């Protein structure tokens, strides 16, 4: 039985959950953590994930079902390794799985695979999405049926290496006194397989309209974007990385700008934090991960979930993951 604040599965290690309601169930698209005997570093070499298992739950109190391997790196023609945090979307009577992986040159790109079923298996397109780079794709299919992909991550995610428009392997981190790098957004074409135009950076500002600074590690963007709508507003949520929080900003347009509002989830056991937010049966839920099941071994994480609540003004109530 799945319970809030406990791992939804314990037979495998899962992380980076993207939760969606498809066909009346909650489907979760996580990454799959494996044993690792190589280096652990800021480049993310400890995260050697190579396939995806799709999970589902009939409701918040039901057992979580593992539908088995849905896609493996060996079946992705352009990819070499590291199938990191994925997302999924439904449009055109088709399910789309979006995923980052390193290409044959070691550069992170974003691929897409398709299926007739939300549980997979998925078949990958021959090539990655042209113009894609970095990690952590998240897709919003809006009420008007336009679809937007949000993506990007610092350090291991290589985002800071693309500021010139080309990949620069030894690019420096952003100036701590200058604007932080934001996530990127690109509208998807009608077939959901390519970008309509080049990705653009999203502006995240404070209440006075000033861009968040790269040195503001309590609030600035690091990785793991997620987009959801609540009462007509767009909510961009993300990980701060080095300060291990999930935070959010609110805007009136899916492409921004977004005004920083506060913390959704305080730090979990383990270095990384990554999440999704979904409405199901008139409640809102936060899916996230921590490393408690593995005894704090960060490259072996487990997906959990808990109810998420809003205040009357639309702000989100901060969650302590270990407050029982």
Question: How would you summarize this macromolecular structure in one to three sentences?
Answer:
This protein has 324 residues and is mainly beta. The protein has no helices and 21 strands.
Cα-based radius of gyration, to the nearest Å:
18 Å
**Helix/sheet category:** mainly beta
Beta-strand segment tally: 21
Largest sheet: 5 strands, antiparallel
For the terminal residues, how far apart are their CA atoms?
A: 18 Å
Residue share in β-strands: 35-45%
Q: How much helicity do the residues have?
A: under 10%
Quaternary status: single chain
Mean pLDDT: 96
Distinct helical segment count: 0
* Inertia-based shape: globular
How is this structure best described in words?
The chain has 324 residues and is mainly beta. It has strands spanning 13-22, 25-33, 51-57, 64-72, 79-81, 87-91, 94-103, 108-115, 123-124, 138-141, 147-151, 184-187, 200-201, 204-205, 223-230, 233-239, 246-251, 258-265, 276-280, 283-290, 302-308. The strands form five sheets. Strands 5, 6, 7, 8 and 9 form a five-stranded antiparallel beta sheet that branches. Strands 14-18-17-16-15 form a five-stranded mixed beta sheet, with no helix packed on it. A four-stranded antiparallel beta sheet has the order 1-2-3-4, with no helix packed on it. Strand 15 (223-230) and strand 16 form a beta hairpin. InterPro entries: Glyco_hydro_43, Glyco_hydro_beta-prop_sf, Glycosyl_Hydrlase_43_Enz.
């Amino acid at each position: 039985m799945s319970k809030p604040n406990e791992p939804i599965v314990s037979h495998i290690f899962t992380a980076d959950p993207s939760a969606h309601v498809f066909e009346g169930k909650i489907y979760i698209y996580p990454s799959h953590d494996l044993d690792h005997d190589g280096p652990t570093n800021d480049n993310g070499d400890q995260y050697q994930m190579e396939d995806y298992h799709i999970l589902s739950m009939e409701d918040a109190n039901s057992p979580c079902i593992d539908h088995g391997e849905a896609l493996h790196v060996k079946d992705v023609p352009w990819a070499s390794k590291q199938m990191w945090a994925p997302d999924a979307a439904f449009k055109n009577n088709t399910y789309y799985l979006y995923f980052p992986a390193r290409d044959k040159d070691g550069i992170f790109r974003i691929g897409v695979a398709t299926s007739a079923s939300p549980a997979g298996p998925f078949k990958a397109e021959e090539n990655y999405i042209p113009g894609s780079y970095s990690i952590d794709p998240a897709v919003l299919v809006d009420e008007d049926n336009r679809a937007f992909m949000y993506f990007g991550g610092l350090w291991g995610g290589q985002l800071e290496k693309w500021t010139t428009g080309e990949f620069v392997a030894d690019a420096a981190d952003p100036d701590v006194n200058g604007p932080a790098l934001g996530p990127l957004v690109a509208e998807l074409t009608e077939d959901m397989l390519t970008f309509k135009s080049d990705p653009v950076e999203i502006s995240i500002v404070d209440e006075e309209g000033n861009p968040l600074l790269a040195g503001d590690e309590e609030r600035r963007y690091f990785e793991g974007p997620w987009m959801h709508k609540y009462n007509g507003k767009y909510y961009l949520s993300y990980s701060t990385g080095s300060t291990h929080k999930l935070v959010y900003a609110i805007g009136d347009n899916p492409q921004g700008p977004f005004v920083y509002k506060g913390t959704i989830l305080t730090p979990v056991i383990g270095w990384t934090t990554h999440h999704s937010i979904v409405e199901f049966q008139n409640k809102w839920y936060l899916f996230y991960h921590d490393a408690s099941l593995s005894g704090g071994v960060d490259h072996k994480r487990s997906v959990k979930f808990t109810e998420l609540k809003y205040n009357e003004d639309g702000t989100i109530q901060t969650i302590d993951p270990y407050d029982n």
